[in-house]
């Protein structure tokens, strides 16, 4: 029988194994017909959280609050239909409060399932986070007031003028749901006191009053270019909610407001409308509404305009794109459940077995969206649930694993041996089981990397006509662990003994990227980072650095030990373009050479150019790098400051940070985890002895090269493991 790999093969094998007993094993599903949902309640109000399960009786239902089993009392108890009843919601601090996350568990003879999460929130309203402030405006211009308050559920905000409620919209007045009041073409009659009023089911709060003072317009109004005084702000909006983008502009004549998308896509006219004189509101937000929107204020009849932009990020709760399927597996077999979900932000996947969280161990592993159970035992027979969760909610999907028992299963394959064939192949050999070997219909070969955590296990199934197999898709210079399982129609053997073997080294896939700087007109500092194992394909034993001038064909070469990460080329020619490249070698041989990289040495000059500092980079956590530096003893130039350059690999360089001459360290935060960053420091000097100021030098081509020569580039990777979550 020819060996097969992957899911299609596994399905074929399992069909062959379990065909004789298909239709014999079945189970009554256990499922919810009603699950609890989020609810907001007033204090002392009664609340019912629904939960009804169906399946083979008897079914036992319990409730959890914040992951802990809920104890019933005279105020909180289960109804006859298993729903949870809270007669008077409490909002006291700590454990006395009923606020929290609720789930019900339903259990019958086949296992236990968890319901979706439901959050009970007590209606509330905080103090105003932003109060309206008094303003003085000229007659005919625009006025704007705003207020902000946190409340649950979100409040309805209205505005009062001299304690009389203003209409939500007129030809001059616009009230935005976000708490903004806009007044166009201000008149003397608009002068007075304004305040906002926030209302929800819990409370009503009034802000302090702000005064609008209107001054007369000074004679004929002169033309004014358009100016946006309140532009749109970046916002994140949940799916099916509304997004409000404010755009308030002033000018004479009054500017016209128009909207467009930065990606040139058309704006959805069915879900979008304009509030007031130019504010944009998008209702029933969908993923396609995400993007950058630009507000443009234009003077009528002219090309005078100004633009403001903001990004809409559409948030979406999790939804499944692939569900786990119920499986029937023999004892000592392997079960794989797959679960994939989408959402924004990306949901986190958690697995549950009979309502309890699954943890990785020697037999049970989780790889991204997969749950893999090896060497199945009877206790693995259970209901498994995949939970996808992000900040907007969670969803659950379930599947059952049925474990088939067989008393006459074969013994484990014996005397397993592994021999290295090449850098990517290992030959595995074994002997047939001692008992019931005549009933074996197939073997499965299991292998995974021996080093590291949560390595994915791979499986190859082959026929019963051989006891040898070459695994030929391995990585060079890696240690692997192997075992073999024998299958019969009614079950599988225990796993064989594990055996460890390593692949041979290979030549490196590529050379390190090099960074080039000059400390003086006659040298070049060459720096590089060690290759990751996946690219080095073994231990790097040597580097070969080749260099030549751009005008000559003769190449000079230097061989360096494999532990080196930098080298200083000296006694070079000033003001000369050099071409350099690097190649790495393992014990097998030399890999691919890098492309030629050019660098011009600085011109020789009597000016005192500062030498580059010694630079040290250290990742502090998953988003932060600490940079430290000190001057070399050879430095004699006077330093008046530093410029710090850094950028993500393969991205353009951003504007430098200006640092004082007294600074010797700096922390760079807000970086992306697991990215490579290149940091570069550039020194600036006091005016030089020959009367030429360093800043002036920096603007001339020759002196700019001299300044750029006084730089040092190093590279550091922020490791994900430094981030403690």
UniProtKB/TrEMBL annotation:
Its main location: membrane. PROSITE patterns: FN3, IG_LIKE. It is found in: Membrane. The chain crosses the membrane at residues 12-33. May play a role in anteroposterior axis elongation. PANTHER family: PROTEIN SIDEKICK (PTHR44170), PROTOGENIN (PTHR44170:SF47). Belongs to the immunoglobulin superfamily. DCC family. This is Protogenin. It comes from Ataeniobius toweri. The lineage of its organism: Eukaryota, Metazoa, Chordata, Craniata, Vertebrata.
